[in-house]
Amino acid sequence: MDRINKMSEKKSGMEEKLWIKAGLTDSEYELLTSHMQREPNTVELALYAQMWSEHCGYTHTRPLFKHFLTTGPRIVQGPGENAGIVDIDDDEVLTFKLESHNHPSAIAPFQGAATGVGGIVRDILAMGAYPIASLNSLHFGHPGDAGHTRYLISEVVHGIGEYGNCLGVPTVGGELRFADAYKGNPLVNAMCVGYMKKSQIKKAIATGVGNSLMIVGNLTGRDGMGGASFASKDLDEENEEDRGAIQVGDPFMEKLLIEACLEVFEEDYVVGVQDMGAAGILSSSVETASKAGNGVEIDVSLVPKREEAMRPEEVMISESQERMLLIVKKGMEDKVNKIFHKWDLHAVVIGHVTDDGLYRVLEDGKTVGEVPVWSLMDAPTYILEGQEPAHLQQTRSFKNEDVAVPDDLNITLLTLLGAPDICSKEWVYRQYDHRVQMNTVVKPGSDAAIIRIKDRDKAVGMTMDSNGRYCYLNPRRGAQSIVAESARNQVVSGAEPIAITDGLNFGNPEHPEVYYQLEQSIIGLSEACRALDTPVIGGNASLYNQTPEFGAIFPTPIIGMVGLVKSLDHITTMEFKNAGDFILMIGETRDELGASEYLDQIHGLVTGDVPELDLELESKTQKFILEIIRAGLVNSAHDIGDGGMAVALAESCIAGELGAEVSFDLDLRSDSLLFGESQTRFMLSASFESAEKIIDLASEQGLEAATIGRINTGNQLIINNLDNILIDVNIADCSEAFKTGFDKMMKTDA
Amino acid sequence: MNWGVLLFPGSNCAEDCFHVIDKVLGKPVTYLWHKDTDLGDVDAIIIPGGFSYGDHLRPGAIAHLSPAMTAVKDFADRGGLVIGICNGFQILTEARMLPGSLLQNKGIKFLCQDQTLKLDNTDTPFTSEYDPGDVVVFPIAHNEGNYYAKPKTIAEMEQNGQILFRYCNADGEVSDATNPNGSINNIAGIINRAGNVVGMMPHPERSSDAVLGLSDGKGVFVSMLKHLEAKHGSDQ
Lengths: 750, 236
Known about the structure:
- The structure holds 2 protein chains of 2 kinds.
- Chain A is of the alpha+beta class.
- Chain A has 3 domains: 2-59 and 203-377, Phosphoribosyl-aminoimidazole Synthetase, Chain A, domain 2; 74-200 and 438-567, CATH 3.30.1330.10; 400-414 and 572-747, PurM-like C-terminal domain (Phosphoribosyl-aminoimidazole Synthetase, Chain A, domain 2), CATH 3.90.650.10.
- In chain A, 37% of the residues lie in helices and 23% in strands.
- Chain A has 26 helices and 28 strands.
- The radius of gyration of chain A is 26 Å and the shape is globular.
- Chain B has a single domain, classed as 3-Layer(aba) Sandwich (Rossmann fold), CATH 3.40.50.880.
- Chain B is built from 5 helices and 11 strands; from the N terminus they run βαββαβαββββαβββα.
- The relative contact order of chain B is 0.17.
- Chain A binds chain B through residues 158, 161-162, 165-168, 250-253, 255-256, 259, 343-344, 429-441, 452, 454-455, 568, and chain B through 9-10, 12-13, 15-16, 19-20, 23, 49-51, 53-56, 109-113, 139, 141, 143, 203, 205-206, 209, 211-213.
């Protein structure tokens, strides 16, 4: 606290007002005094400062959430709980959510990333579910440029691995992307998926006056003080002093917590559960009380602590890890404690549910703070005026003619295959246990991770996707494209997209250009989610991702998507399977180079507009892909994304260790054809008979589809257009570029 | 033919082993609790992988002091079959039920990959389903899998046929280049002198359910089952 107070002082210059120090504005202070009808004391002020931060109160993002579609036939629980829930038939459900841990990871990358995993896993646990898989989306500056960036990457990956591996939750997928915009402020978003029977669902609610609030798991200390408000301001050099706001993780404790909680949940002892994340005991208990329309009282002296002489507000807002709040039926406390004791843990009563609607903090039985529960949940919201970023006028004016077609397209292809965003991420995922729990049917490195549901003929597709460059160049269409791409990754794997969780990573929203990016991205996400029938069932907002030196990050909405594979027979992967199979391309290729990986990597340009996206056509095409996969017509399927058609083709060759020759008859620039990122395109392979059927079915539905060539046992990838050989490259060279790209990047001397 | 899977705080492959015995082999299996001194009526014990006691101090260093481990030693002394997988192997070396120890991987990073292994001694209750020289794929997932023992011990083990699995490439070539973690002589799995206690870093259970694309590991459990059935007379 003291450190943070000092920081605010430095920033605000001469201000001595206590609420300013705590991170509240004058008008917010006025509002809370009117709610309380008196001036708050220091404990009460601390309660409001945390609950009304962007991180807890979603002050800037909440008004924009109205755009989201949050309901649907498979949606059991939308936003508002620890995580959303979707129905996967047979009275079984999945719960999933993603969460950011950007600022902690910037300062203490190992612990920041590790506790990010711990936090999201507890959200899933709080729903009553067993965590079955984790994914993560990571964004860094270019590692080749800076030793510090390579340090951040190593430590973040190590932190995620150490925590997830110890828990025994497989880390099965995600993404790793690079741009200078993340140099000062990396992004670490973690997602967890849990499985349970419908009857096992738990809620974060404090019902039943007289019921007990029990804290379980770790001791409470001064680690993670004020993490919520730390996450709600810009990063600058002074943040080094905020190390006190970074939590320390103990995955062993979390593992025990999972086992013990799930054992308790099997009995009828608990009415509500809440994870202690941002703003710790405070936010977890306020949220459960608010949902029930009840009050709660908590005696801080009852909280088991690891440090002496903690002030009441410190106990309330501490973000010590591996703690959960259970609302336990009166009289069942000993039974709950007995189960925790079996796991060498404690479960301690720290307060009770009351009927007066007040949030009361006591110390040794004496009231030290008392405010209305509703007022803590009633964080003011801000609807700001956005302004189109100045750079868009220039970037939109880009014409393909502004760049020349490279002389040697083979070299271009090899460069792209080894490029940071495209190359194999095996360096990363071999540090993650991706097979524990024995459900991983399709492991990391494919379009989607596929996790089977034991004893059932079904599986789950999981993806995480983003594209900061797209959203920087066109926030609305960029955001649409991410949802579309995530859904493509699902359907090519044989999964029907069900729902998404979103992570909104942006700069400081008080800046009109950033607010514009935020608003437009949310609108774009919403539009695509409606069109593709993937409601938003929860998410996370991380604003203020910027530093004085490097400015704001690219606007980076991150999508975590879950899909249902209705039969294990539908599971499809990207690698070419059989020499002789025909290669098909679905979708139309246009002269679109804007925003592409190719422009960025080959020409050093982050410019142009994001490729056109027709959401209606996207939906129709995806349904078609799923239909032909389910009909058993497809031997391999891959979405055409970063790096365009040539990269997709090369990836299928590399993974299948087979050659291919394809030919086009298109009046397009060679680079547009090979590396342009026209949307709604897929690369398939199929037997001769199936290929014919696919073409017929596509034409019946009015979809663009063409047989472009065949797979062979040779060692070359050959791509022709209009009788010209554009690409003639050795598969082993492609493989070498693709597989060693990342290692090379990490070894570059700064 | 009862199987027991020993559960420590922090074990995380217990369910996987349970699943293989229960669903793949279709045999009775039960969890054994680390605080228990009576293991009940079991014919084989699996010490599963994971991070018992969070790997605090050193992997396996605390778990091997558990009350149940005394009972496991008694069980093994009476000739019972014991297999420790990954952390289970580390626990068995800490308990001195197997020679040597597991150091940090030479790459100083956690390593998870599908690993090719070459069968050495197949004349054991754990490997009888294989032929010498067979190349199989079991996943590995560990940070401390670098097997080490004194040269004299290694020489004895080699002579006694105590090496069951070695890290190799797809062609069965055993060399430094095919050694993922720096283990001496590419050792991936060993057996005790008496021939009833095995420790191995690779996970045969993860390679036992064909849905996951790997099924070579099933042979380990089938070998054990056949041995037990022969010993007891087939009563299942």
